[in-house]
Amino acid sequence: MTTPSSPDPAERLAAAFVTLADTLRTDFDVIDLMRRLAGHCVDLLDVAGAGAMIAGPDGKLELAASSDDTMRALEQYELDIDAGPCLSAYHHNDITEVRDLDHPEQHWTDLAARARTHGYAAVHAIPMRREDQIIGVLNLYSTAPGPLSLVDQQCGQALADVATIATLQHRTLAAHATHTGQLQSAFTTRLIIEQAKGILTERHSITSNRAFDLMRRYARHHQLKIVDLAHDITTGTRTLPNPPQNHRKPHHSR
User: Fold this and answer.
1) Are 129 and 36 in contact (CB under 8 A)?
2) How far apart are CA 46 and CA 141, in angstroms?
3) DSSP 58
4) Which of 40, 95, 174, 240 has a 20 to 30 A CA-CA distance from 29?
5) pLDDT tens digit sequence for 51-82
6) 57 beta partners
């Protein structure tokens, strides 16, 4: 009995794009996306390790995912010392390579030595960006010195681009959902207050403006939010006393 052959590289690459681009899942998670990105890079490219760093709200890079524990330790060390190809790629918004870790830049010697002890010979850092917006960096480690092949460069950049677009799309959807929720909340609040004003207007034979003033004064005196007071009025759980009547001063004739 023969086992089915594994998909060819083109099919595997296409499948990777599909999984990375799916931002509409209810369980979508950016960290899981970065984990899958690292895994696809090791599976599809001629690299032995991969990791992804994402910029936090303060703009500083944070470790998001790694293909294995060794990569995780190297990535974290790079963040701890605040130096390395990944940091350089992020700050300069450009691909940064160390093609031979036996001859790194002077300020990366400690990181290079650690990487060499784990069998890595070269590192390639690819910014994750969309136009002028950069969200993080994809780090690729090779066991042989030298640059990535042109095909691997193009595939690595394409994978990083798809993951970047997916992340930005998810952020846009999340922001839209938040904004929509805020608008709905504001509308609901306004509706409850208007309903309460209508009840007071009918009950006390007063104007709408005076009804709102009555609610505002009562809410302040009893340290209530006006929307909570309005809700109590509409549900009948709280009633307001009759407002004082305005009386004209008597007119005395001479």
Assistant:
1) no
2) 9
3) T
4) 95
5) 999 888 888 888 888 999 899 999 999 999 99
6) none
Mind listing the pLDDT tens digit for each residue in 15-32? 665 666 565 555 567 788
Give how far Cα 195 sits from Cα of 29, 192, 212, 227, 236, Å: 41, 5, 11, 11, 12
To which residue do tokens 């918004």 refer?
93
- Domain 177-235 indexed as CATH 3.40.50.300: no
Per DSSP (E only), the strands in 119-228 are: 122-130, 133-142
Cα separation, 36 vs 66, whole angstroms: 9
Q: How many CB atoms lie within 10 A of CB 99?
A: 15
Contacts of 147 (CB under 8 A, 6+ apart): 97, 99, 122, 124, 153
| pTM, 2 dp | 0.61
- Which CATH topology does 10-176 take? Beta-Lactamase (3.30.450)
| CA distances in angstroms from 87 to 2, 84, 90, listed in the order given | 48, 5, 5
**4: enclosing H helix or E strand:** none
Instruction: Report CA torsion sign: 16, 18, 23, 25.
Output: negative
Going from N- to C-terminal start, the domains of the chain cover 10-176, 177-235
